[in-house]
Amino acid sequence: VFASWAPKLHAHYHDALRKVEKKIGATRCFSGNAFASATVNVGPAVRTFIHRDMKNLAYGLCAITALGKFDHKKGGHLILWDAKLIIEFPAGSTIFIPSATLSHSNTAIQSGEKRASFTQYSAGGLFRWVDNGYKTDVQLQKNPAAYRRILSEREGGWVKGLAMLPTIQELVANV
User: Fold this and answer.
1) Could you read off the pLDDT tens digit of each residue along the chain, which spans 175 residues?
2) CB-based contacts of 62: which residues, under 8 Å, 6+ apart?
3) What element of type H or E holds 37?
4) Which Gene3D superfamilies match (predicted)?
């Protein structure tokens, strides 16, 4: 799904993980998956309060899947605060959101119902580590010339990141 709806961003994620696998022999959470991390939030009545996942890739997407048995008309709604949207989010649904930059939460479910969630995401630090030649920023700062070069390369990074997101025209073409 990620590759179909955001192919450039998916390729960026996949490429970073491929480099990590090659460099340190790490394995993916799930074979062929482009996300570096996954979390299962078990119930019985999972809900989140308003937050941003600030350690995720700033221009990236997070996949959220609702699980359980609950009346999605009465609870478990996904709220995208900055977009001023409240979305009915039934069990089995998956949505991709820019969780690092978009404040989000979900509403409580009814008494006696069950809700869990499965999220997939990638930390921005992983991409920086790859871009830094497999060094943290702290390690890279020990070589001032290399650090200045990397900082220079990062300028305008948000433009490159936005260019990886699908346009409305690209999204419509996939429908």
Assistant:
1) 999 999 999 999 999 999 999 999 999 999 999 999 999 999 899 999 999 999 999 999 999 999 999 999 999 999 999 999 999 999 999 999 999 999 999 999 999 999 999 999 999 999 999 999 999 999 999 999 999 999 999 998 889 999 999 999 988 987 8
2) 53, 56, 96, 97, 98, 99, 100, 119, 120, 121
3) strand 37-41
4) 3.60.130.30
Question: 166: exposed, middle or buried (C-beta count within 10 Å: 0-12, 13-18, 19+)?
Answer: middle
Q: E strand or H helix at 16, and its extent?
A: helix 7-24
Cα four-point dihedral sign 117, 122, 125, 126: positive
Peptide bond into 44 cis (omega under 30): yes
State the amino acid at position 67 in one-letter form: L
Number of other CB atoms surrounding residue 64 within 10 Å: 22
Q: Give the chain's domains with CATH numbers.
A: 2-170 (2.60.120)
| C-alpha–C-alpha distance, residues 33 and 39, integer Å | 14
Q: First-to-last CA distance in the chain?
A: 12
